[in-house]
């Protein structure tokens, strides 16, 4: 399948890229890895006038710790995240990184591209939500820091404005006693999730959960925070009853649609099952 | 709309140039503009991996990349694997282990395996299988492909351990 | 006689000669591993143009108008062809290989989603793609029929009015086999009748290479070169000649390397004919390469059988009889390439591997608003559907009687001494040893221990299942008294010519798409003549040079063309004997043939090698003998061949997600004498994977508007190396008594035999909870729904 025609520019600096988005507001689309955008172009589901390729902006690919945060540049690839020692400290982040798409996708797909694209079935958004991350976006005028929990607005719609580029994701470094996990069920390797859950919990010395982040992917219009599960977890101890209430919260709190992955009741059940599996692994990693 | 742009790519060590529309896919640049038809197109959803090549050393699906994105980059295709008349250990292993039948997925499979073995010189069977999860094969059932990659991994490790002395005049 | 010991097939040639039984490395590999294969998309002709097809979004609609003006105005667009253009030449409809008709391009009504509606020809593929999207077609949607049962109801719209007023029905044909009265009586007298309803869904061949062609009409020579992905090049040439009026001597069909066929590249697709017409019109080559989503939506479909079957069994565990009624969903036309007397293919092999006192099989076929289906997708002809049914029935019967499914099979198998075995549906199985294959599979997998483990796990609430499939395949179509495709008998052919310096070339009428014919057919000749196989060039697929053949599908290459090859080689050996007698000044009767040479009995030092004889064929001939050393054979097989096997599968079901994890899979196959064990094993691996796929992952389904729900690889789930188990294979060798080299063919055995092993395993895991049957694909959502219903979820 052949894309429709478009213009293409590959700026050599972020400022140059921002200027292009400004000058051709509304018809410019940022191209990072391309593994979300190019398939859309080939099916002509997207027909932008200009592609702004940020492939030369190597200074947007980094993973570092600063100011109590993990700071990840938008152009960091899934594979780089999989390999990063800093990222591996988070079970939630490393579970997710190794399971996105296939190896070729992971070589080129970027965190920023994936988050900005906000496919409701993709993995990173739920991870950002569960770890209470923030997203940094910039245009010529200003830089904004948007909490992930205010970022994913609707199916493929985020809080990014047409003149802005996502430059960095910031993840608060969790306190000791924190464990996280990402559980996903898919029909085959490389498939989008049927349902997926991202869970991060902090547990005190007595085994009580003091903080919780729970988010689901693929079972609603956008990836979303499962507030009912977070409420159930905080203050509780690990128990079968706690698992059941998290399972129910996930199954009841999502809004899946029927498709090739399955009917609605199956997806609800899988949301619950993934939430429980992620919770068990997160608690084990937290030392509960 | 811009009509065409100039693209200069190094492919298998040789510089190639072309004037292309920005929308031209990298796989078409390689196959049709440069005549390197070893890289194949097997799907249109970026699923099958038959088009896999190396771009700056990383395996990539060339159907999911634009020719203009490759400007200034180094590309290796299946045609670049043989050195003179010496097959790459992966090529040798694929034929030794009967890891191909119709041959259509084979170039992409070999290129992906070459990246995989660059990342992990001693992969387990499970790591090999996950390492080629982005490459479909309909003929072989994968068993012999896994054996081939395993054989090549062993051969490459031997070569790394005992580098061949190069005679100079 | 079954050779079982040590799995070693005796070889009579050295490895250097590379005859039967040697795992000779493939002659095809050197070009493929270097990326120097020549697939159709790699072929480019001077002055060629590109074709792109405009397709209907609707499954059933009238075409109210086609406006190509915007497309024609685009620079680089050369032509737009519609059904009305073809109608002027009487080419808008053409015959199918099943004796029905198909549209090349419609003039007024489209019958399936993605149907070809118009074709754009342009200077390059990007322009052609843009222009195809610029063709404006106005449709009025009509009522869609996607349920074949509804298609046969009296108020269903008649989908094929072109068949005439006396055929105002969506029933295509009705076909019967066996003896209805005998089967009814047998089931009525049986202690128990075990019924089953099996749906084998529509699936897609999904070879890694899609379909494509370059039609190259040279107006000066009045000659058509047609380069195409075809499994049956000669049949294509004849069909093109019949449809176009161009005589066959002015048509050359040429295949190149084909990236997988599996039956999907047997039919003559509309795109091919449109490309030919376009080339005739423009006088330039026209190249058409299908995109994958076109391929997944418009061609290469298989299966789609709704089967109701009943097995009569007695309380002692013996089968009493079988009765089967099937509805076949063919899509809007019967384009299945079945032999003409067998519109349901070889489905009546459904009596299986068992002594069957009586059987009756009937099949009705229906039209629906889907693309044509029923391609012989690695199933011989409909044998997957048949084997799935009988192997499921046998398992259900065993379970209902409280018998172990292996025990039930042993009790009912046709025994080795009963061959040739005549089935109640008319087949004569040539040879077999079913108990040996099943026993070997059970030993390899540790069957008794697995049953113990299963009981322990079940007590803990873990769902483990063991499934057996003991299949008999039927391949090698077929004998001339019974088999033809559009009237052409299903012989096959080989022509061999030995050169003066001892090497040879052979051309055959079949067509490899990855099976390794360049290697294996050379091995057959090496076996017969002692010429090293690497000195024998095998060619196929050029209709100007290859002898007429029916092509490769339904596992027929080795049984039919392989036989022709051996017979042609033996004709050469007969002439070689005469030349040797002349050279050795002995009588022919005094000569014996071993190890590639003729020697005088009792004086082995007086001998001539085949190489010496070849040279003499051009330099030193007996008085009156014609020069040369060559022969051709067109082989009419006396019977089909019957490969068989037993497969055992172990599964563990994830109670949380419904996923079926295949823990182990053992496949014991018997394909008679083996030409190249390495290649046979590769075929089994690939076939097993194509059996796994529809069992757990793949399905082409349509919603009520006829929309294809799996039209890309995002939703048509071809297994990766992650899903595919590490197959374990074994073999027994029971030669075919009627085949010149005792070989049976094997390419499709595993696709046929594997799905029931998976299905039986999953049902076995759940039988104790009251689950009797699950249709494939056994997707997680389907299995989970059953677990949920039975209160078995995590």
Task: Walk me through the structure.
- The complex is a heterotrimer of chains A (288), B (169) and C (794).
- The mean pLDDT of chain A is 97.
- Chain A folds into 3 domains: 7-53, Uridine Diphospho-n-acetylenolpyruvylglucosamine Reductase, domain 2; 58-172, Uridine Diphospho-n-acetylenolpyruvylglucosamine Reductase, domain 3; 178-283, 2-Layer Sandwich (Enolase-like, domain 1), CATH 3.30.390.50.
- Chain A is built from 11 helices and 14 strands.
- In chain A, a hairpin with a 6-residue loop joins strand 11 (178-186) and strand 12 (193-203).
- In chain A, the strands form 4 sheets. A 5-stranded antiparallel beta sheet of chain A has the order 4-5-10-6-7. A 4-stranded antiparallel beta sheet of chain A has the order 11-12-13-14, with helices on both faces. A 3-stranded parallel beta sheet of chain A has the order 1-3-2, covered by helices on one side.
- Chain A has 288 residues and is of the alpha+beta class.
- Chain B has 169 residues and is α+β, with helices and mostly antiparallel strands.
- Chain B has 2 domains: 5-80, Ubiquitin-like (UB roll), CATH 3.10.20; 89-160, DNA polymerase, domain 1.
- In chain B, strands 2-1-5-3-4 form a 5-stranded mixed beta sheet, sandwiched between helices.
- In chain B, helix 2 (89-96) runs antiparallel to helix 5 (143-161).
- The mean pLDDT of chain B is 95.
- The two termini of chain C are 50 Å apart.
- The model of chain C has no long low-confidence stretch (mean pLDDT 97).
- The interface between B and C is large, with 58 and 58 residues.
């Amino acid at each position: 399948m052949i894309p429709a025609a478009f213009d293409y520019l590959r700026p050599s600096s972020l400022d140059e890229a921002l200027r292009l988005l400004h000058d051709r507001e509304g018809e410019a689309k940022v191209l990072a890895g391309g593994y979300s955008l190019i398939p859309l172009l080939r099916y002509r589901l997207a027909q932008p006038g200009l592609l702004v390729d940020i492939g030369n902006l190597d200074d947007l690919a980094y993973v570092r710790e600063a100011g109590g945060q993990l700071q990840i540049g938008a152009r960091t690839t899934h594979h780089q995240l999989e390999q990063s020692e800093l990222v591996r400290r988070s079970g939630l982040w490393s579970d997710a990184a190794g399971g996105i798409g296939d190896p070729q996708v992971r070589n080129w797909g970027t965190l920023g591209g994936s988050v900005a694209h906000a496919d409701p079935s993709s993995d990173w958004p739920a991870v950002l939500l569960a770890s209470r991350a923030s997203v940094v976006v910039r245009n010529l005028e200003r830089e904004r820091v948007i909490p992930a929990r205010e970022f994913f607005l609707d199916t493929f719609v985020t809080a990014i404005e047409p003149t802005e580029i996502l430059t960095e994701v910031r993840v608060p470094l969790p306190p000791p006693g924190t464990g996280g996990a990402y559980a996903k069920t898919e029909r085959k390797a490389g498939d989008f999730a049927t349902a997926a859950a991202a869970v991060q919990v902090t547990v005190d010395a007595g085994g009580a959960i003091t903080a919780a982040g729970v988010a689901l992917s693929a079972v609603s219009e956008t990836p979303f925070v499962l507030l009912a599960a977070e409420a159930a977890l905080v203050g509780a101890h690990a128990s079968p009853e706690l698992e059941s209430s998290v399972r129910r919260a996930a199954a009841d709190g999502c809004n899946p649609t029927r498709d090739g992955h399955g009917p609605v009741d199956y997806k609800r059940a899988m949301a619950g099952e993934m939430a429980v599996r992620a919770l068990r692994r997160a608690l084990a990693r937290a030392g509960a | 709309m811009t009509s065409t742009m100039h693209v200069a790519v190094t492919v298998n060590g040789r510089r190639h140039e072309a004037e292309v529309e920005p929308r031209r896919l990298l796989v078409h640049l390689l196959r049709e503009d440069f005549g390197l038809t070893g890289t194949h197109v097997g799907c249109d959803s970026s699923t099958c991996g038959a088009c896999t090549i190396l771009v700056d050393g990383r395996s990539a699906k060339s159907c999911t990349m634009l020719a203009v994105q490759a400007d200034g980059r180094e590309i290796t295709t299946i045609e670049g694997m043989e050195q003179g008349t010496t097959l790459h250990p992966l090529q040798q292993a694929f034929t030794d282990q009967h890891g191909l039948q119709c041959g259509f997925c084979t170039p992409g499979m070999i290129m992906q395996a070459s990246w995989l073995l660059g990342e992990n010189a001693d992969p387990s069977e499970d790591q090999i299988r996950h390492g080629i999860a982005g490459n479909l094969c309909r003929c072989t059932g994968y068993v012999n492909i896994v054996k081939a990659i395993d054989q090549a991994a062993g051969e490459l490790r031997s070569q790394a351990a005992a580098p061949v002395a190069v005679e100079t005049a | 006689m079954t050779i079982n010991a040590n799995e070693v097939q005796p070889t009579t040639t050295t490895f250097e000669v590379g005859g039967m039984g040697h795992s000779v490395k493939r002659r095809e590999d050197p070009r493929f591993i270097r990326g120097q294969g020549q697939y159709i998309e790699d072929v480019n002709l001077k002055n060629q143009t590109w074709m792109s097809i405009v397709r209907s979004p609707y499954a059933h609609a009238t075409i109210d108008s086609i406006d190509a003006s915007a497309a024609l105005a685009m620079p680089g667009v050369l032509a737009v062809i519609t059904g009305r253009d073809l109608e002027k030449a009487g080419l808008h409809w053409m015959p199918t290989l099943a004796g029905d008709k198909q549209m090349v391009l419609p003039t007024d009504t489209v019958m399936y989603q993605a149907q070809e509606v118009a074709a754009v020809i342009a200077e390059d593929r990007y322009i052609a793609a843009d222009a195809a999207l610029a063709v404006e077609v106005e449709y009025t949607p009509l009522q869609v029929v996607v349920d074949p049962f509804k298609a046969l109801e009296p108020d269903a719209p008649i989908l094929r009015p072109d068949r005439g007023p006396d055929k105002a029905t969506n029933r295509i044909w009705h076909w019967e086999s066996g003896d209805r009265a005998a089967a009814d009586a047998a089931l009525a007298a049986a202690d128990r009748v075990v019924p089953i309803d099996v749906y084998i869904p529509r699936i897609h061949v999904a070879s890694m290479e899609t379909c494509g062609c370059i039609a190259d009409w040279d107006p000066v020579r009045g000659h058509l070169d047609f380069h195409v992905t075809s499994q049956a090049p000669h049949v294509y040439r004849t069909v093109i000649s019949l449809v176009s009026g161009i005589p066959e001597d002015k048509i050359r069909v040429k295949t190149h390397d084909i990236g997988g066929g599996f039956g999907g590249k047997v039919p003559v697709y509309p795109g091919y004919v449109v490309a030919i017409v376009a080339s005739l019109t423009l006088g330039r080559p026209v190249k058409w390469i299908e995109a994958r989503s076109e391929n997944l939506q418009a061609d290469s479909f298989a299966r789609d059988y709704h089967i109701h079957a009943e097995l009569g069994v007695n309380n002692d565990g013996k089968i009493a009889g079988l009765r089967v009624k099937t509805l076949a969903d063919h899509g809007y036309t019967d384009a299945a390439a079945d032999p003409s007397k067998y519109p349901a293919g070889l489905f009546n092999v459904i009596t299986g591997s068992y002594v069957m006192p009586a059987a009756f099989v009937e099949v009705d076929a229906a039209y629906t608003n889907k693309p044509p289906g029923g391609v012989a997708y690695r199933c011989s002809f409909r044998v997957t559907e048949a084997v799935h049914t009988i192997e499921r029935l046998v398992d259900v019967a065993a379970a209902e009687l409280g018998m172990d499914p292996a025990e039930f099979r042993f009790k009912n198998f046709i025994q080795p001494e009963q061959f040739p075995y005549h089935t109640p549906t008319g087949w004569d199985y040539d040879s077999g040893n079913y108990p040996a294959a099943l026993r070997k599979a059970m030993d390899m997998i540790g069957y008794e221990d697995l049953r113990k483990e299963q009981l322990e796990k079940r007590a803990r609430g873990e769902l483990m299942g063991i499934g057996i499939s003991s299949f008999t395949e039927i391949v090698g179509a077929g004998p001339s008294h019974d088999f033809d495709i559009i009237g052409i008998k299903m012989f096959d052919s080989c022509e061999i010519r030995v050169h003066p310096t001892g090497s040879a070339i052979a051309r055959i009428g079949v067509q490899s798409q990855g099976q390794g014919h360049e290697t294996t057919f050379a091995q057959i000749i090496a076996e017969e003549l002692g010429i090293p196989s690497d000195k024998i060039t095998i060619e196929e697929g050029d209709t100007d040079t290859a002898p007429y053949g029916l092509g490769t599908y339904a596992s027929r290459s080795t049984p039919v063309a392989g036989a022709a090859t051996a017979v042609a080689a033996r004709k050469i050996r007969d002439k070689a004997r005469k030349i040797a007698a002349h050279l050795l000044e002995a009588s022919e009767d005094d000569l014996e043939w071993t190890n590639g040479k003729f020697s005088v009995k009792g004086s082995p030092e007086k001998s001539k090698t085949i190489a010496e004889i070849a040279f003499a064929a051009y330099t030193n001939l007996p008085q009156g003998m014609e020069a040369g050393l060559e022969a051709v054979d067109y082989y009419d097989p006396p019977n089909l061949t019957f490969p068989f096997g037993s497969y055992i599968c172990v599964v563990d079901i994830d109670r949380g997600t419904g996923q079926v994890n295949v823990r182990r899979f053992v496949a014991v196959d018997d394909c008679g004498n083996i030409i190249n064990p390495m290649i046979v094993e590769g075929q089994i691996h690939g076939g097993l994977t194509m059996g796994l796929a529809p069992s757990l992952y793949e399905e082409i389904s349509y919603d009520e508007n006829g929309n294809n729900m799996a039209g890309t690889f995002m939703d048509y789930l071809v297994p990766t190396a992650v899903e595919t188990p590490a197959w374990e294979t074994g073999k027994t060798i029971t030669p075919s008594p009627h085949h010149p080299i005792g070989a049976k063919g094997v390419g499709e055995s595993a696709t046929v035999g594997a799905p029931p092993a998976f299905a039986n395993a999953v049902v076995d895991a759940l039988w104790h909870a009251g689950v009797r049957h699950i249709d494939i694909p056994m997707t997680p959502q389907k299995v989970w729904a059953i677990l949920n219903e039975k209160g078995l979820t995590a």
